[in-house]
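tool=predict chain=A
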Amino acid sequence: VAANLELHRGVNGWLPDEASQYAELDTDWDGPSGSISGEAASVRIWQDVPTQSECTYNFSYAFSPRPGTDAGDNVLQAFWGGTEEGNHTLAGGGQTAWSTYSHNVVATGATTRIQFEDHGTANSLGTFLDDVKVELVSCPPPPPPPPTCNCTNPQTQTLVSDTSNTVDENGDANAVALTTLHPAWTASIPG
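tool=predict ok
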């Protein structure tokens, strides 16, 4: 079932946390002058945001209970990539009372879903949400590059061998020098 999201701007003099409007997640589907009142209209809203895998983000939002309602009307759950990051319950006073919640979270792919749900009494009253932000904090350093060959300036190394490719036990055989140009070769000559 598709539901309508209720946005408030200047309703009853209640103040937003940021800018000029905020959302009520236990919505009034046809507004204050409509014919429906007290409908079971708790909603879930989400957005898929672009992220970088393994990077850390700060996921923050502001929550206020609806003024004049009890805590059972104002239950907010917040999710990052399907994992619950926050569960908040507050009773409302005479004015909005915004609390900002912040979570450092790690992305696991190129897109991450942020989601908010009203879990209060479904009666079209409660759970205000405002100022949702996702900000990049850090990414792991990239892996080091693979080693490269400095083939334009090779190191010359000299290896020793004998002309018959064998050396007797006394080391009496004649030996000749062999020169290589491969920088990764090493030689160890005893004695």
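The radius of gyration is 34 Å. The mean pLDDT is 84.
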